[in-house]
Amino acid sequence: MPIEVDTNSLARLVESALPRQLWAIEQHSDRCIAPQGVKVFGRKLKVTPPISCTIRGAVTRGAIRLRGAGQDIVADIPVAARIGAYDVGGILKGKTATGSAVVHARIRLAFKPDWSPAATVSLDHDWVNAPGIDFLGKRISFTEKADERLAPVIRRLEQTLPQELRRMNVRAQVDALWRQGFTVIELNRQRPPVWMRLTPQRLHYGGYEFQGQKLRLNLGLDALTETFVGTRPADPAISPLPAVSPLEGDGRLRFHVPVVADYRELEPVILRALQKRAREPFVLPGIGEVDATFEKVEVYGTRANRIVVGVMIVASQRSGNVSKTQGRIWLSARPSNDANSALVRFEDLAITGDTNGVGGDMLLALGQNSAVSNAIAGSLTQNFSRDLNDLLGKVRHAIENKEAGRFVIRARIDRFSTGRIAAYGQGLYLPVDIEGTALVNFRPAPR
């Protein structure tokens, strides 16, 4: 989850840390030109004395340009040197040389545990025209003196950059990102409504990249994700920004999604399936054809990974003098599925009832009929199979380009797997593991 920092402000910070005149020099040297051996009359060797001079000059810089080179922020600093040798041996009034270079200040950023910045700086430079003068057939070069004078720039930048970088308020931006992470994202508006609640746990720092005029800090977020089907959950409580920890791993997006289907969302699904099946009569052993009307369905979770489904039925026998019978039957069963399958089965089925007449046995027989249990199981199978794929499609679309607060999320789901279904008090629980890739941009608040 990257934070992007405008590097124009960083360029201004480097500009303010470096004066226009990097250094000036004025010093006397007794050996501007070293002693030289010369022939006199072609026979005798004579050594000339060293020639002294006074060296004066200045090195100034031009406008600074920032660029990226891997983990380095490189400040290209154009440098112009103008250096002169005066009173050379007391006979030459002066001679001036110019040189130009590009000094590269390589800045490597780091963050302390409290998110305060630190910096290390190294310098190297490419002389275009090395400053020096030609005198008496020899080259007097001032490159070494330039190197000597440029060295303090490193110490100055290392001392001033962290202070200047603090003005960029990176910690405040990271803290804002952290706080924005405690949120509830709507994944599907209706039929059914689906929500994902994010509760950040840890924040990791994985270096930075320089792209254009943006400095991208790569952060990794470990977050607890909870997925809810039905009513929007409450927002999570915000915890303080944790200390910096290193980002490890391959940068893949992995999250465990506990998909909980609220029983209230399943009730109309089951009712529609039973009403569809009731268009044809039920054939009950020893009773014959029976017409049934299903009026209400209630679903609850109970102990031992079981659910109970209460169905209000009005039933009548097509032949015979038995009047209509009305009552509620209860089907208790344990839902199950295979790993990586949303095909739901019901095992250990048990039937009880509460009817209003002698036809109660007919209702119990109706509940025990495989057509009823198959309709219920089929409705839930359809709900957890086709709807799961449909839901994943909607999730893909939702996180493909999703705005949540100041987050812009672009994600891709590469694969998913499902675990074993389980019945709990608030609903049926199907664990889903998702893996993919994601890029999350954080937009700072407007100033």
UniProtKB/TrEMBL annotation:
Domain PI-PLC Y-box: 155-216
One Pfam family in the UniProt entry: DUF4403
The protein, known as: DUF4403 family protein
